[in-house]
Amino acid sequence: MQVNIGPIKDQKGGEFSFRLEEDWSDLKMDGQPLGFVSPVVLKGKIGWTGECFLLRGTIETEMKIACARCLEPKQLRIQAEIMEEFRRAHHRDGQDEYGDDTGAKDDWADEDIQEFRGLVIDLDEVVLDNLLVSVPIKPLCKEDCRGLCPQCGQDLNKGECSCEIDDINPHMDILRKLLDSGD
Ligand SMILES: [Zn+2]
Ligand SMILES: [Zn+2]
Asked: I need a labelling partner for 161 at 20 to 30 A (CA). Which of 3, 47, 74, 150 fits?
């Protein structure tokens, strides 16, 4: 996902709106598919403030994520706000001193500003970061998902199992009292 800032690069205060759409269904992290089932859509505005290129927008997609209780895959609509600042990298003596983005170190390296070269800003990383922090940590397939039986693993949404489970485990209860009295 890329945006070309050519039209506003010399125009302080200038901004324009854009919409990008990309299929990330093959995207993996640590060998695991991330589960994008709909294209990632970024609707944004980018402006040149004179200090930085400021991007604001919203990102939308759908992901298939396992329910935290029953592990059944659940399709979730993910929406995220995005606001990022970008600055063009320095070129000293016309030479590119910094091999890769990740190795870039300079005056504003401590600030939360992304660097780019030329006229095109690659947005993949910031878009993905903003999406992933918006994914619920414990997604549920439904509010009242009953989860899996802790003894036999049966999906209790699909029917009862024949295990008998006491609601309160007496050993756990004693342990809890001991821990509580310790405070
Ligand atoms: Zn569930
Ligand atoms: Zn069971």
From this structure: 74
Q: What's the token pair of residue 153?
A: 């693993």
Q: What is the maximal distance between C-alpha atoms in the chain?
A: 76
> What pLDDT is recorded for position 124?
95
DSSP state of 177: H
Distance between Cα 153 and ligand 2 center (Å): 6
Residue boundaries of the structural domains of the chain: 2-145, 146-183
For ligand 1, the distance from its centroid to the CA atom of residue 149, given in whole angstroms, is 12
What is the Cα–Cα distance from 45 to 17, expressed in whole angstroms? 4
Q: CB–CB of 2/120 below 8 Å?
A: yes
Structure tokens of 8?
């506003």
Of 153, 131, 154, nearest to 61 (Cα)? 131
Q: At 20, list the tokens.
A: 């990008």
Sign of the dihedral defined by the CA atoms of residues 5, 7, 8, 9, in that order: positive
Least confident span in 10-14, 65-69, 112-116, 143-147: 112-116
In the reported structure, the alpha carbon of residue 120 is separated from the centroid of ligand 2 by a whole-number distance in angstroms of 56
pLDDT at 90: 72
